[in-house]
Amino acid sequence: MGQPEQRDEAGDGSPPLGVGMVGYAFMGAAHSQGWRTVGRVFDLPRRPVLAAVCGRDGAAVRAMADRHGWAAAETDWRALIERDDVDLVDICTPGDSHAEIALAALAAGKHVLCEKPLANTVEEAEAMAGAAEAARARGQVAMVGFNYRRVPAAALARSMVAEGRLGELRHVRVAYLQDWLTDPEFPLTWRLRKEAAGSGALGDLGAHIVDLAQYVAGERLAGVSALTETFVRERPLPEGASSGLSGAGGAGRGAVTVDDAALFTGRFTTGALASFEATRYATGRKNALRIELNGARGSLSFDLERLNELWYHDGTEPDTHAGFRRILVTEPDHPYLAAWWPPGHGLGYEHTFVHQARDLVHAVAEGTQPLPSFADGLQVQRVLAAVEESAAKNSVFTSVAV
Amino acid sequence: MGQPEQRDEAGDGSPPLGVGMVGYAFMGAAHSQGWRTVGRVFDLPRRPVLAAVCGRDGAAVRAMADRHGWAAAETDWRALIERDDVDLVDICTPGDSHAEIALAALAAGKHVLCEKPLANTVEEAEAMAGAAEAARARGQVAMVGFNYRRVPAAALARSMVAEGRLGELRHVRVAYLQDWLTDPEFPLTWRLRKEAAGSGALGDLGAHIVDLAQYVAGERLAGVSALTETFVRERPLPEGASSGLSGAGGAGRGAVTVDDAALFTGRFTTGALASFEATRYATGRKNALRIELNGARGSLSFDLERLNELWYHDGTEPDTHAGFRRILVTEPDHPYLAAWWPPGHGLGYEHTFVHQARDLVHAVAEGTQPLPSFADGLQVQRVLAAVEESAAKNSVFTSVAV
Amino acid sequence: MGQPEQRDEAGDGSPPLGVGMVGYAFMGAAHSQGWRTVGRVFDLPRRPVLAAVCGRDGAAVRAMADRHGWAAAETDWRALIERDDVDLVDICTPGDSHAEIALAALAAGKHVLCEKPLANTVEEAEAMAGAAEAARARGQVAMVGFNYRRVPAAALARSMVAEGRLGELRHVRVAYLQDWLTDPEFPLTWRLRKEAAGSGALGDLGAHIVDLAQYVAGERLAGVSALTETFVRERPLPEGASSGLSGAGGAGRGAVTVDDAALFTGRFTTGALASFEATRYATGRKNALRIELNGARGSLSFDLERLNELWYHDGTEPDTHAGFRRILVTEPDHPYLAAWWPPGHGLGYEHTFVHQARDLVHAVAEGTQPLPSFADGLQVQRVLAAVEESAAKNSVFTSVAV
Amino acid sequence: MGQPEQRDEAGDGSPPLGVGMVGYAFMGAAHSQGWRTVGRVFDLPRRPVLAAVCGRDGAAVRAMADRHGWAAAETDWRALIERDDVDLVDICTPGDSHAEIALAALAAGKHVLCEKPLANTVEEAEAMAGAAEAARARGQVAMVGFNYRRVPAAALARSMVAEGRLGELRHVRVAYLQDWLTDPEFPLTWRLRKEAAGSGALGDLGAHIVDLAQYVAGERLAGVSALTETFVRERPLPEGASSGLSGAGGAGRGAVTVDDAALFTGRFTTGALASFEATRYATGRKNALRIELNGARGSLSFDLERLNELWYHDGTEPDTHAGFRRILVTEPDHPYLAAWWPPGHGLGYEHTFVHQARDLVHAVAEGTQPLPSFADGLQVQRVLAAVEESAAKNSVFTSVAV
């Protein structure tokens, strides 16, 4: 047997916070790292305990629990929700099960952290946002896992925009470029099937950049005009794939039923223009989430491939000495950084999950609304729906539902 | 009196090529530098001679001629066209006079170089392309001044795409970002008035990136979906501005009648997706013409602010050692470079005009069609028209006329 | 009480590896993160257990143990060494106590990990290397904590050099630039006093770059020529500082007795030239450990401020397409990366300690010599001694003792 | 016959300035471009005229004169000096003839521009500086062609240091990295023979960085400690090489008699530390002249491979928003830029020669001392001599003669 985290009282008598996680793949590992580390680094009002993890394959979930330090393993998410030692349900499954699990967890009185995108449809997201609002009245909190808000550079960007350093916003350009589908023989995993993933690059990458752009800008999109494309329409079935995917392609191939790439332009409610691109075909770009904002007084630029850096142009300086400066976001007065290492000692991808856990624990303990809320997640979903509607209607400008 | 260039025979008996230039502001200075330098650096079949320059203000054009080494100065472009010592007419005026001058020059049997955009309307551009085609049969050549094709890195990019190094093209993303209109008190110059400039960022910057994207990709746009915006709708009249601009704004202010920014997405005829952004409001970006192409086998990336560099990712290499590489485009086997300095000794903006002159002189001497042709310029104009039409129709996807 | 790690058997019956750590400041926190995380991420032959941590201040070390998950806290390092549940002693104290603790731990039959620099003098380092060699015969292992060898990009660089990708080495240039002493009012901490730290930038930063340069190059320095300097010779005493530092400067100031910066050039035994710079006065450089190697066939370049990137120039490619490429060192086949996140999801500073723990656990379990050994640490110490000797003798070229 | 520049009066009656150039290879072409262009771009008190160029091969120099617009060609530099239409002698030959030509030109009452390094020995340089000083009293001016002072970014750096933006200087690190000798089959040209070139990388590249470092820092080196190396000691003789090179290597190979690389550290008179590296073996680095200065209040960084950029860190800003900023040195208020293109439209290598010509013409017309003077060139020569002496004496710290 492995090394479970103990359920102990914190020194100050505040109760621990039992976490139950559903799903245990990539996101599960990242969330585990976050929950396991957060109390070692930050001062927390309640100490999270890795109470139980849930997956369908009993042996696999048991091994995962041992590896990552979860005290118990479950194979039925309903059982996990019922556990007394679970105060918060962390949903790391594909999008098609988010709504059902989240609604049940909220109904059972649990706090909820739900991976993005909030749901595969606006309808599901509406139900979830409604349930979260109702639960809020009962003291429960719910949050969507747009973890990139917790990159220190992104949080710093948000605070600089909020301080007015950019002035009136003119342009927001955002792209999320990956390249793992460049190879046409990459198999048809669940992320390429609409029934599981809802959409392709749009929901996976596009959801991130819609949320991040609106978060940093502090403004919402009024409408969008969109193109989507599926470059490779048929791919080999993955080994051990369930039957019945389709008869298409003869033996061993199936249809890709989601978008490979989504491009859209938009207008913020304040009049700023935005451009978005989400793709899995940008050869050589591995995880290039890039955002640039141009305002009347300044600009900011960020690239997730260099996540410890924020580039800032102060447009109020004399031209002679002005220029985009590289802020190394590792100073003690940068968001989250006081708890970490000395200046210049950078953080990595997984730290976003530590920070997410930190903020969520505070919200639970203090009874505040953690952000992004399910309502925020619903709004992102409405943007994605407007993108899909526009793409289906010859790119005509389509308002985002309010 | 200044130092005019002599009209002499080249050593091999080939006649010189008399150049007459209309317009003498920013573009006039840049073209002068090109014509004056090209024969000093490149081996040419005919040596260009700076025969005459034309502008409306006699004293100013005379001073400009002295400064830049033009043998004669004219104040009437029709007189310039009639000169026997002018073999080629170089049109550097605002877009509203391109058609009239070019048509007259072609009719007078002259070769023509016309600054971009080719014209302010598709109709004018059609007339010009038709006239150029007719003149071609008489041995005359005509070319549009999309000078960025002559940045060595851009020419290298084109050749690498043509060699198949990128494979099937998936994405082309292009932006031309400047910031000189960020200040709302910047005056209402001719570039901000539709009757002179035709359009704003679209025709000025957008024309460049449409041409460059299609040139490097070696493909044409099938259609576009567009947004345009004018952020600052009224500006102070420039000192000494002509009357009649508008009564708007009372004393000293007038309406901006062109776009400040244009965003559009598009599809190439081969199915690749494209995104474009042209703006004069990207605070801190001075001349950031950026293009990135992603293909199934590789990617290329370029930024005019670092014009001696081309970034290349070879997607066929093993992941272990693959990455975007910075090609310093200063090697003798790079386009145009054998005539210049040793490796690492970079070129600048104005060299594009030297290279443009070189290629045009060769075309004249050898009787070949210089590129981009007026037909190419017309096609760019049709793309811009589709952009404007889409923007006027709620961004609906609009085919480019063929 | 906090949440100690359990001392459990691994599933395969192999015994856990009890770690006892001495020192609990910056390095203690980083090592804790490493020990706590390594078994969650990597498959290990033995699972490390955070058995006990030691520090002089009982309350502080107890709090640190609770925070970081150490099962027990000690205030006497001799007691820690004696504990049965401690198999490996991890020394994170200042350099003046390394020798005494390491010698005692080795004598007590424990494995040892010792922070760099190995010691404050060559004599101490010789004793430690001798003791480690003797202990090796008894099945114990000892390793020096030059953690930057465990940056994946550095490990990749080493393997590329070993594969011959650089050919005969010509140049190695290394710098470690920080700026935390730029402010003359920064207090006189132990790192600025020779009796505690041994030397200043030289031992702190210079030791890292000497080790890294020799590791990546796969060659050793034959001799050096050096300059050192102390720019600010007197600083305020830190609050609560021990008395008797010096009477200099009247109340509250004391003499800086170490170097602020060290510059040295050198020759590798193979004839390659090297340049080194270590400073705490490079305003704006926070943690810029930079290394570049130039060989007859290629070059490599790295900067710790962008630790997920390795730049590689393949000199055997045709000039037309050659250039320094940015390898994003996040691919599954890069060192240590298979255990982490998908491509493009970068790691941070602390991961070096996870990797160090991984390699050390393997060495312990498999009975192999972990690198860098104490003998390697001694050799670095000899280089530093040659630097100091050269600096004291007018920079005369000084051979490194063998 | 070609197109000579006319010897005309300027409009204001000031006489033209006849330039006679000795040498017509790489530097000759670059200087021609400078002289030919300067009057087209800048307002000058006297207009330079390309009067005559001199080289030993009559046909070649005649062709060069035609190509570059020199009115006359000479094959004897003494004849060139005697010409009445030559007011200023521009010396572009290898270093071994600088002294003789410059002394004769000064004796003949001519102004002199001499390429760097000023001479091959300190003795020659002393004679030249003495002659220049004497000529100065007669109204003649003399200048050394350290053209990199005329990169706008370098001139801006100098002015920022002079304004006190860096505060007390701590570090200056400079390198000039090229790679054209990486191939051991590169032939034994004059630059690799001591009798012609004086030294190798040291005099060619090292001279540049010594001058630039002292210029930007505004301080002089007190002493140095140096290593030099010749990696490839024998190379193929170039085709058509003169006999008597040496009997070494049998048929077709000769000994390299200069350094391939030089590394040195130094101290400025004010106490700042400096490191220098000059090499032709830095594979992949084509023309990487890099300089970084760290002061108590700020830092500057520059790389000639990106010559339109200057990086500046303002150390007085709050850490939260501080960072190295990229100043695009293309603004009208940047040195030399008002005469060129709009912001963001970069310059190239050859523009340094235009700027050099501009400053020299002003000095001639206004009777001021152009910088760097021959005395400055002599001082650089003394630094190089100290480097060679230190390298010959086991790197011992060697004072620079005053």
TrEMBL record, chains A, B, C, D:
UniProt entry tagged with the keyword Oxidoreductase: yes
Domain of life: Bacteria
Gene Ontology molecular-function annotations: nucleotide binding; oxidoreductase activity
One Pfam family from the record: GFO_IDH_MocA_C3
Residue ranges of every copy of the GFO/IDH/MocA-like oxidoreductase domain listed in the record: 157-300
InterPro entries per the UniProt record, alphabetical: Gfo/Idh/MocA-like_OxRdtase_N, Gfo/Idh/MocA_oxidrdct_glycsds, GFO_IDH_MocA-like_dom, NAD(P)-bd_dom_sf
Domain Gfo/Idh/MocA-like oxidoreductase N-terminal, chain residue ranges per copy: 18-141
Classification via PANTHER family: BCDNA.GH03377
Official protein name in the record: Oxidoreductase
Species, as recorded: Streptomyces minutiscleroticus
